[in-house]
Design goal:
12% strand, alpha+beta
């Protein structure tokens, strides 16, 4: 699928069919994250794929988002910031978050190519979910991604942000790429007093 089409097609899906995807498709999509930008080439991510219904219900509970229970799979994106902080000190934690975001987007777009849908969940009780899945305290859960087949046809999405108002050129507040020079206007050739 064309990348731009995948970007436009992606939606936050909160209602899933009972049909369960092939877990290998999810694994293929996770494999694409290895091509995401990583500071210094240090890959800081780990993943946890969950398909046990009772545990998915627990995730829904500790995320305070009941609709997650419908998802046949949930994928946790987990970082080991220590890998980056060993090299980049305090900046390493920021880099870990940044590259996790890039990898999550790559994963979600890859799901679209497989005909799957997802939603990026950032609100959850991290301590409870770490305890539930025996995740070490040294790791950070960056996001919870429920995955499945979309139950309802998506509504037309209205994009809120106008790009023109968000882009600056050369310095903050400058909304034009090129400076507009004053243009001299002239009457067509043959007129008297041709210069305006």
């Amino acid at each position: 699928m064309d990348v731009t089409k995948a970007i436009h097609k992606r939606r936050s899906t909160r209602s899933f069919k009972d049909k369960k995807p092939d877990w290998r498709d999810i694994l293929d999509c996770l494999d694409t994250t290895r091509y995401s930008p990583m500071a210094g080439g240090y890959f800081t991510l780990n993943f946890l794929i969950i398909d046990e219904k009772e545990k998915i219900k627990e995730i829904a509970k500790w995320s305070e988002q009941d609709w997650i229970k419908e998802a046949p799979y949930v994928v946790l994106f987990i970082t080991d910031a220590g890998i980056a902080t060993n090299v980049y000190k305090e900046r390493g934690e920021l880099y870990s978050h940044q590259q996790a975001g890039g990898a999550i987007q790559t994963f979600m777009l890859s799901l679209i190519e497989k005909g799957l849908s997802s939603c990026w969940v950032g609100h959850f009780n991290e301590d409870k979910i770490k305890f539930l899945f025996k995740i070490p305290n040294s790791r950070k859960i960056e996001a919870i991604i429920p995955v499945g087949y979309e139950k309802e046809k998506p509504k037309t999405r209205k994009i809120q942000a106008e790009l023109y108002n968000r882009v600056n050129y050369h310095e903050w507040g400058n909304k034009r790429m090129h400076r507009i020079e004053k243009v001299e206007h002239y009457y067509p050739e043959g007129y008297k007093n041709s210069k305006i």
